[in-house]
Amino acid sequence: MMRRFFRSRGVRKLVRDRLAMVALGVISIYLALFFMMWCGFLVEKEETFERVGANTEVGFFEEPTIEQRLLYLEFYLDNLYSAADSRTPEASLAAIDLYGRLPTLTDPDAVIERIDPLWEVYDELVELYEDDAFSDDPESLPRLEELEAEAATLYTEPEGLMGRLALALGTDRQGRSIFLRALYSIKIAVQIGLVCALISVAIGTILGGAAAFFGGVVDHVIVWLYSTFSAIPYIVLLMVLAAMFLGSAFEGTLVPVYTAFCMTFWIAPCRVIRGEVMKLRELEYVQAATAVGFGRGRILLKHIIPNTTHLMFINFSLLFIGAIKAEVILSFLNLGVKNEPSWGVMIKQATQEVISGFFWQIGAATVFMFVLVLAFNVLSDALQDAFDPKHV
Amino acid sequence: MWTYILRRLLYSIPVYLGIVLLLMACLRVNDPVAGFLGKGASEEAYQAKKESMGLDRPFVVQYFDFLRQLVTFEFIKVPDEEVTASEDGGAAVLRSRGIESWSQEGRTVGQILRESIIPSISITVPALCFTLLISIVIALLSAYYRGRLPDKLMMVSAVLGMSISFLVYIIFGQYWAAYLLNQKLELEFFAVQGYEPGAANWAHYCLLPVLISTIVAMGYDTRFYRAVMVEESGRDYIITARAKGSTKRKIMFVHMLKNAMIPIITRVMSTLPFLVMGSILLEMYFNIPGMGRALLDSIFSNDFPVTQMLVAVFAGIFLVSVILTDVFYALVDPRVRLS
Q1: Alpha helical stretches, state H, A86-215
Q2: Which of A379, A233, A207 minimizes the C-alpha distance to A308?
Q3: What residues does A51 pair with on adjacent strands?
Q4: Are B283 and B49 in contact (CB under 8 A)?
Q5: What SS3 state is found at A24?
Q6: Which residue of A has its CA nearest to B308?
Q7: Which residue of A has its CA nearest to B307?
Q8: What is the Cα gyration radius of chain A?
Q9: Which pLDDT score is estimated for B94?
Q10: Is the CA virtual torsion B12, B13, B15, B19 positive or negative?
Q11: ipTM for the assembly
């Protein structure tokens, strides 16, 4: 079935479409990242909740303001100082781990001795800043830089590629790495997209094929079923289905999301494939197969369904986009992904930060999602052009 | 024609019965009473609540009772002082008062429906008109310049626009258009959020949500309308028109637009139910007390009677508009009703 499909004229047309191939490349990168994270590489779920730096640190190309720099300094100094000053200084110091950045000093007394004079400089600088005299004093900026360099020596250098990238897109309001969270969200998004699109297309193909091929009562029942499901507005159905699981054992897992999406999404492929099978079953080769004496089930599965492969691919691609976008909306409404970062969860959190002019979280989630959705949009268009050019 | 309409109507009855069945089953997966009262509620309170909605009866009885409420339009009733005061037994009082909400005591589903429909419509109807006008113009231009630079630019930006989440448009729209304008320029043109009735307040509260939903919908609509136009441009009557010497512009805007109106109107008709629904996200984000938000609130406050009734009503409206679309389509295109 697959071999025949990949040798078809449509596929050759698709391969010649350069834009579609670029999109396919982008999708493969996302899929590769998904598999790596699925196997436990790159980012673990727990790591997306760890503190990696000060609160709302800005990303790589934005220059932090003096106020932000002072805030970061306060965090980095205080993080060590309060640990060394606590009741169990050794244990507290050893517990500090900013995603691989450890304290360079392990002796609490040495830490306090090092940081105490730094606090004095820090307080002076804060006072200058609060009096709006920071820019008047030419000494203050070099002093701040010196202090920052000093504070940096208190921590070890980040380890590995991930450690260096953890601060690349800044941190959210709890000091968690935006890059790691956005990266981990790829896993959630692709997982939801794959599971929902695969199941929906499978259900839709089987039901749609059966409805058109067997006709009669089967057709009536299946058409009734999808008319029923499609008569409830899509977003309302999603909300009701997802809300069905509130308070149950599945709350907090992805099961409500999968269920809601699969029960909503099978309608589109079912309709399309029913229409296509209606056309196919009248063709001569089906009559020939019947004349040879093949069973009806066999004709449907081996002779008719394989000829709808292109529609399955188009629908898979469209539903994948649908699932990713709907996940964002459901998560925003608190009905979707919970206890895990996802682009929807990130955008939801970012609404608080946008008001204060901090765009890194929403920007990162949007860009990561935009690239994937755009690639799938381009691919769906190309698939449609290649296999179903008459489609409006 | 009439047989077609009748057939269409008869056919939608089992569909609606199915919707109600599906909806009632979904909402009873988790015990709605336990969800509303929480874990600390006493046994008596639990039973009393259950009986007040008739949830202790068998599912079949509940099903037919709910259908009765829908068919007799009991859901749009609002409390009527005189009837409530009369003493003709509990059941009669209950019937005359309509269906009461759980979380908003003393309010009925009818009141909630009546109050929220205006805010919803005041956003969705202008949004639909704007989207329709703008996207048809863009689609026509795009089809006119088909394959050339303007067409490519417009289609590329449509795909780009479609790839961004609706939420991002809302968040940035609110931040730039409402928040920053108010703060930096001290222009109080757009409200950051909220809603007040009255036409004078419309632009202040509703224009920004309308613009946002127009921009979001434009990507999808433009592509669809362009595809329609491109398909029409390959028809025989276009060749005939060209052969008799019509200008390209006249063919585009007179001959083609007229024929393209059928799929366009069908698409508009199919979006009508969403006009009533409103945009849940916009209403939530801009704090507009419309239908979508009423539904969302009822889901989150476990307000079972309101959720059940609102979804059933939405589905009913949806079904009616689907029938209207089909009938309209059959009216303008006789091939449909003959098949």
Answers
A1: 89-95, 108-130, 140-153, 160-165, 178-214
A2: A207
A3: A176
A4: no
A5: helix
A6: A240
A7: A240
A8: 28
A9: 46
A10: positive
A11: 0.85
Nearest to A376 by CA among A316, A326, A311, A327: A316
Can you list the domains of chain B with their CATH numbers?
Answer: 1-102+304-328 (no CATH), 113-301 (1.10.3720.10)
Integer angstrom CA distances of residue A330 from A1, A317, A324, B162: 36, 20, 10, 18
pTM of the model: 0.87
| Chain A residues within 8 angstroms (CB to CB) of chain B | 224-225, 227-229, 231-233, 235-236, 239-241, 243-248, 325, 328-329, 332-334, 343-344, 347, 350-351, 354-355, 362, 366, 369-370, 373-374, 377-378, 381, 392
> Beta partners for B100?
B108
Query: What domains can you pick out in chain A, each with its CATH number?
Result: 2-44+179-387 (1.10.3720.10), 61-159 (no CATH)
Model pLDDT for residues A150-181, shown as the tens digit of each residue: 888 888 888 778 888 888 898 888 889 999 99
Are residues A244 and B29, on separate chains, in Cβ contact within 8 Å?
A: yes
Residue type at B151 in one-letter notation: D
Contacts of B171 in chain A (CB under 8 A): 347, 350-351, 354, 362
CB B275 within 8 A of CB B287: no
* B165 interaction partners in chain A (CB closer than 8 Å): 325, 328-329, 343, 347, 366, 369
Give the Cα-Cα-Cα angle B231, B232, B235 (nearest 5 degrees): 105
